Amino acid sequence: MSETRIRNMEEFAAASGVSRPTVSKYFNDPDSVRPKTRARIEDALERYDYRPNIFAMNQNRKLTKNVGIVVPYLADPFFAEIARTLEQACIAAGYTPVLYSAHGEPDLENDILDSLRSLKPAGVLLAPLGRLSDRAAIEKFCGDVPTVLFDSSIRDLGLAFVGSDNPQFSRLMVDYLCRSGEPPCFFEMKTPANPNANRRRQGYIAAMEALGHAPHIVQVPGEGWAFEEIGLREGLAALDAGRFDTDTVLCSNDRLAIGFLTACYERGLKVGRGSDCHIRVAGHDDHPFSRYTCPPLTTVAQDYDSISRHAVETLFRALEGQETPHEVTLFEGKLVMRDSA
Amino acid sequence: MSETRIRNMEEFAAASGVSRPTVSKYFNDPDSVRPKTRARIEDALERYDYRPNIFAMNQNRKLTKNVGIVVPYLADPFFAEIARTLEQACIAAGYTPVLYSAHGEPDLENDILDSLRSLKPAGVLLAPLGRLSDRAAIEKFCGDVPTVLFDSSIRDLGLAFVGSDNPQFSRLMVDYLCRSGEPPCFFEMKTPANPNANRRRQGYIAAMEALGHAPHIVQVPGEGWAFEEIGLREGLAALDAGRFDTDTVLCSNDRLAIGFLTACYERGLKVGRGSDCHIRVAGHDDHPFSRYTCPPLTTVAQDYDSISRHAVETLFRALEGQETPHEVTLFEGKLVMRDSA
DNA sequence: ATAAAAAGTTTTCGCGCGTAAACTTTTGAA
DNA sequence: TTCAAAAGTTTACGCGCGAAAACTTTTTAT
Q1: Domains A66-164+304-331 and A166-301 equal at CATH topology level
Q2: A-to-B residue pairs, Cβ atoms closer than 8 angstroms
Q3: Which of A7, A15, A258, B187 is the most exposed place for a label (fewest CB within 10 A)?
């Protein structure tokens, strides 16, 4: 396709018959040059496969076209899905997404923020670890870099927060469970990493009391992000200790529920809402695998799409100069009825 | 902590009492300077929080300290886990990992290779999409950038390939299934994205014939990476059509098996090796969730750790100048006996 | 103590581009 | 045709660092 190899913007400008600064202008915003000029550049772009050196580009720019995406735990398909949506939205908007996972480790989260800073990103989409996050570090980072928080909020840090209306999730599920059977107890980790868990518990308590039932919370030990393992191990322990005083168990999240379903299986408890079933189990999130548990898990679906779309839009609106006060956007969940409850 | 803000290496060198080129040398290899000098630099490093500008650093270097990690589908926890291990190994070796996922899309895979090229990475760890990969593009890329392929191989491209001995996986499982019950049939997608599927099928056929059994393959339609969905939908169809002539089903991979387990559940088939069970189901990979299916899935475990460790080691050995011929390393799988078969 | 080797310094150059200012050309409408 | 605005060009400078060469100092070995 090419005659001679283009080594830099100077040579490319010569080849396209346009001056170098104009070419530079084109790459920063194709609409900023005359259509005729643009055509000449794009013509040359097809003859030669020149691409500007990104390091030289970013060196003299205070802000790059990079957007950092940080999630707490990428091995959780929920975050993998969100990351995918966010990446696509960034690319569509002409930005370059860079993906990071804290892998559940606070130290790594701090390291990521550090190296992100030196990337001079235009903005960052950050889902913090939650309870274990270094609040001071994140606050400082948000002061330096335009950051939109999502999934789990930390006070009112960042430009905005986009997440789910967690109390509504629990209310929805409690209402359904109560009108279709016994009132549920709430199964959760004692010290959950994610602050959403607290809001779900509170939502559960409020919903139960509104219906005139006494809330019953089964808290189990467990640290980290291996929720399925905790759900299984501590689910077994709780079952054996007779800690459930109802046949309906609402789990704090789907991954915990997946582990708990396995615990039920190992104890020979048939899960479901049929008359021959021993126990009903429900979760929160609509985790990608919840459709494929046995039985398929009844849960409350997070609005993945809306959350990621709105997070990206909020960030880009802020980047384009529109100063807005810290805004919190919470999306409602939808009941997903399957066979487990 | 700091007195005055350090703006560049020049100022930092002045503050630490060492010349700028020496500081530069230090950052490229801390061991290349005298211990005394190193101490002075690291002393200053604690007083001021200076960090070299990565864009300026990489501009004049033909090779950076970046290492690209490319996986085909990050929403699959298997790849998320591998990515985590690879990232950690890169960091430990003093490199900067950059993670990409093709999200199952060949176009995106090519885009990633393109933008990776402009990152001037020291090396790349690439798990290609497989059948849908653009072979020509990958071949060209491997010619430009030191690349170690893993998980799914493409001819003898790249510096090396690191993966699993897939025929051995199937042999192991077939042997076990045959000596503990009926010989298995093989359940797979007709046009699998991943070439490992073909090797597993071949391993299955060879193992069956070695034991004097007639192989029986159940191929179902389905494209893309939504394996669970395909396993469920096509599993239901195959069950209803009576396509299984044995009570033992060996699935091409665990995600397919997870979907198939759900199909069995929906048809009221009890899965397991007990006398009251109707069907046995097994998989390949030891997917992170396989422990938590109901019943827990019997499978052959990929040696995640060895694969990722060896891939990284191979790459770094090559980067340090040791020219080696294209080498293929395959790790054996281990039988993981659970309750499903 | 003395020479040789190792490490550090100084000097100089250049990477590929962004950016600003002053100037020139093109464009489009009156 | 005329002219002002828009777009492009020229010129000039600098970003923050890598790298090579020649020189100077420190360390190591004899």
Answers
A1: yes
A2: 110
A3: A7
